[in-house]
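Marked as duplicate of an earlier ticket. Keeping the data here for the record.
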Amino acid sequence: MPVAIALIIGILGGYFIRKFLAESKIKSAEEAANKILDDAAKEAEAKKKEAILEAKDEVYRTRTEAEKEIRERRAEIQRSERRLIQKEEYLDRKSDSIERKENNLQKQEEQIEKIREEITSLYQEQLQELERLSNLTSEEARDLLLSRVEEEIQHEAAMLIKDIETQAKEEGEKKAREIISLAIQRCAADHVAETTVSVVALPNDEMKGRIIGREGRNIRTLETM
């Protein structure tokens, strides 16, 4: 009997010991597993945070570089726009200057042409009147008036050139000299072949005054012929 009881007690003791040891192992295994899981979770969280930080850094660098490139391109565009505006303003000023010069030259040419026509008309009138008053031939009257007309032309030319020099010396002076020289040549050439005597009625007292001359200068010249 005591042996049986001891055997039962031994069996039960062994069972409980094995159970205790098994539970201890299970608990240790669970703790180890939990620790592994915790460590893995912590490591994963750390890697996650590290990845997030790296991603943020990459985004910041990319954005900074993009903003820098945008600023540089914007500055270059602004510089190009300023250069373009400056070129447009320069071209506008140059165009205005050319237009003013062209207008001045046109006005000067018109003035010169008007003076040339007035000189030619006056030459004709004085020539005809001298023919009537002095009964000279056209050639004699032409020779007399030609020298006088040349003096008047030179005087008018000097006045015109002076006015032109104040407006546009480089452009106007050359043209004035050329046109006035041409006017003198034309006036002389138009009357070289005339050999007749003409009688012309004076239209008004102003024309008579031109023919008589200042203080009777032309009449005194005729009296000495």
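See parent ticket for discussion. Confidence is low (pLDDT under 50) at residues 189-202, 221-225.
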